[in-house]
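User: Predict the complex with S-adenosyl-L-homocysteine.
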Amino acid sequence: MNKEINLTIKPEFVQDYYDGYPLISGEAIVDLANVDDEGSILNLHDSKNKFIAKGYYGKQNKGFGWILSSKKDEQIDVEFFVSKIKSAIKYRDEFYSDKSTTAFRVFNGEGDGVGGLTIDFFDGYYLVTWYSIGIYELKDDILDALKSSVEYKGIYQKKRFDAKGMYLDDADDFLFGKRAPEPLIVKENDVNFAVYLDDGAMVGVFLDQKDVRKTIRDKYAKGKTVLNTFSYTGAFSVFAECGNSKKTTSVDLAKRSLQKTKEQFEVNNIDVSSQDIIVEDVFNYFKYAVRKKLLFDMVVLDPPSFARSKKHTFSASKDYVKLLKEAIQITNNGGVIVASTNSANFSMMTFRDFIKKAFKELNGKYKVEESFSLPKDFRVNPKFKEGDYLKVVFIRKLK
Ligand code: SAH
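Assistant: Here is the predicted structure with S-adenosyl-L-homocysteine placed in the model:
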């Protein structure tokens, strides 16, 4: 049994929780000092001791935990998690039956009723990611629930929490069933990706960009020169090439990106020697491109929210305008910039303002062709808009 603690919510926050707001914030709680162990079940009450909702204690970013149920008598046990997982699977029926895409998100945190937990599907293998010590404390019930709800080849896990002395970067993320081949080849809209379920923090592909990749391939890439910055394993380049781009250039600072990008091309039978894969700081590459008067028909910008390299610190909320200005200078007139960010710190409206500002400062004209947020399998809780972190805008540079 998980430890249960009764807590009082400050009056000004009570209505939010009745309305279904899922994040428990420290500042909403009167008797914070009563909570010690992450993973404890928290029963939230108003100041007259009337029950509001229950959740669990798990520190994650600015949050203190997540609401799990508005029912007073709900037990947070295997059965509870089975019902959450089963309804998440039902919501994704179409993804399970689509043979052209064999990798997708099955369970998306608070969007599926349990914040701090995601489950991804990779061709029969499941990857569970824990985002706090608190949710990790509940792992036995959650894994039992997963095992009884799905047929699986194997189950893996990743721990994405960090607490001094507590965080163990397990050499081995494998849990149950059989091990996946290395690499495991999955499909996304008929394109292959090599993924590694047990090789560090990331598996090789970010599943939330699938609609953007498909759009690049099907509508924009044909005959175009494509510069893919912050390219990681080159997923955007592979899709551009599958859409018959003229040539792709992938730039990433990480040394491993060269081999990883080659591999993604190879598993799609694309001749790697006709593609450029460059290991370099993107900001240096921009300088080089300007000096050499290079121009591209399409420039993809997909930086991390925050990054520090030897010479530069990049923060999406502070530096995206600057990044756009660099990109605009090396994009052909009539060309397209795909501007992407996964920063939850600002809204789509602010992102559009960044674009406006960048073009204004360069006296340039543009037209927004289309924009994207998270795909359907990355289900968002309508009461928690911050969860819809992805913002991607296709911008046409005009003369
Ligand atoms: N666009 C990628 C995901 C990007 S992840 C995709 O679609 O899969 C962010 C990447 O940015 C990481 O691979 C990291 O190595 C790289 N990166 C961070 N700072 C950088 C910099 N200054 N120059 C080049 N790459 C950088």
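The first strand starts at residue 4 and ends at 8.
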